[in-house]
Amino acid sequence: MNTPQLPIEGSCLCGSVHVRVTEQPLLTLACHCNDCQKLCASAYSLTAMFPAEGFSVTGELVTEGLRTEQREHNFCAKCLNFIFTRIKGADTRVNLRTSVLDDLTWFEPFVELMTEEKLSWSSVPAVHSFARFPETIEVLGALMVDYSKR
Ligand SMILES: [Zn+2]
Ligand SMILES: [Zn+2]
Hints:
This protein is mainly β. The chain has two helices and eleven strands, in the order E-E-E-H-E-E-E-E-E-E-E-E-H. An eight-stranded mixed sheet has the order 6-7-8-9-4-3-10-11. A three-stranded antiparallel sheet has the order 1-2-5, with no helix packed on it. The mean pLDDT is 93. One zinc ion is lined by residues 12-14, 16-17, 76, 78-79, 81.
């Protein structure tokens, strides 16, 4: 698997929101859940998880779409492109939607989640599969270690 050239940059569909990442990804994921299918108008969502301190964003964002106590999904205020998610209790990490990145040649999902809601014809070349989510922070940590050795 390739590692991305830093900084990693990207923008939304209309170009108003720009993202920049100065650290290597912690983990790459595909999620097959029904919510991700709706959010991304696709069979699954693609995410690259980064350290929050290496992530910066400019441009106006809205967070109203499916905002919950736990999850804050950030969209471009103009074109409503889905950009990134912050999860409460996991403030040291940012989940970036890979579709906004300028260069995706390095990206491949290492882990797939929620395969119990996966469409029958849909498949991704993930190394680790979960019927739902990793149950504990220890399992997630082990995945990150495994990913860093790829
Ligand atoms: Zn936009
Ligand atoms: Zn999902």
